[in-house]
Amino acid sequence: MSFLEIRDLHSGYQGSTVLQGVDLDVDHGQVLALLGRNGVGKSTLINTICGLVRASSGSVLLDGRELAGQRPDVAARAGIGLVPQGRRVFAGLTVTEHLEIASRIGRDGTWDRAAVLDLLPRLGERLSHRGDQLSGGEQQMLAIARALLTNPLVLLLDEPSDGLAPQLVSQVGTTISEIVQAGTAVLLVEQDLRLAFSVAQEVAVMDKGRIVLREPTMDFRADSTRARRLLGVG
Length: 234
Ligand SMILES: Nc1ncnc2c1ncn2[C@@H]1O[C@H](COP(=O)(O)OP(=O)(O)OP(=O)(O)O)[C@@H](O)[C@H]1O
What we know:
It is a single chain. With about 230 residues, the protein is α/β, with parallel strands linked by helices. It has one domain: 3-Layer(aba) Sandwich (Rossmann fold). The protein is about 35% helix and about 25% strand. The chain is built from ten helices and ten strands. The strands form two sheets. The chain has a six-stranded mixed sheet, with helices on both faces. A four-stranded antiparallel sheet has the order 2-1-4-5, with helices on one face. Helix 3 runs parallel beside helix 6 and helix 7 packs parallel to helix 8. The relative contact order is 0.18. The model has no long low-confidence stretch (mean pLDDT about 90). The site of adenosine-5'-triphosphate (ATP) has 10 residues, from helix 1.
């Protein structure tokens, strides 16, 4: 049995069904990259897993516990962590305040303030800065720190490279690898294929609200013509 098991999941927005029966497993100790063209439903899947978008049918089992249709706070307590698209840090709150709030959400575990500042030392130098005083890279680190403080079993990362300079993107890759080594599984939505390929053991490709392919990253990279066709890139 996989750690996170998604079966025949449907969800969407008023008047439009986006997820049309998603089946996907994420295993212990794994980074799984979720790829696909714009608008195929990757963010909708992430947001349905964590309860921000309500599942209309299907199943999201985390370590044997059913989460489909549950509220976001229930999903967080069960062990789903989210680094949302666009980071969503609060402009008027300091780094310290963000970390304090996050510590009260989710589960107890080894990720406490000292551990996340050890992983992301730059944040330690910015504790009194407000969200709107941070660079894009620092905001991304804060979004990751906040999610880790909930001690997730599975961390959902929605386009963490978005808007970051190449050097910072590779730093995000290193951080993701360290998080997985510490025992958290990762589902990574990413347009930056270099980042996705560098950290993920496997890739899953989404199209029109379904998973249409899943295979080891090495095999996916080996057929670049098919990869380009599936992802709609140059
Ligand atoms: N809040 C919303 N209300 C209504 N429709 C939405 C909402 N969010 C997304 N959609 C629609 O759902 C579909 C899937 O969008 P989604 O953001 O999940 O795709 P995606 O694969 O993550 O794309 P991208 O890479 O552009 O973020 C799109 O047609 C989008 O317009």
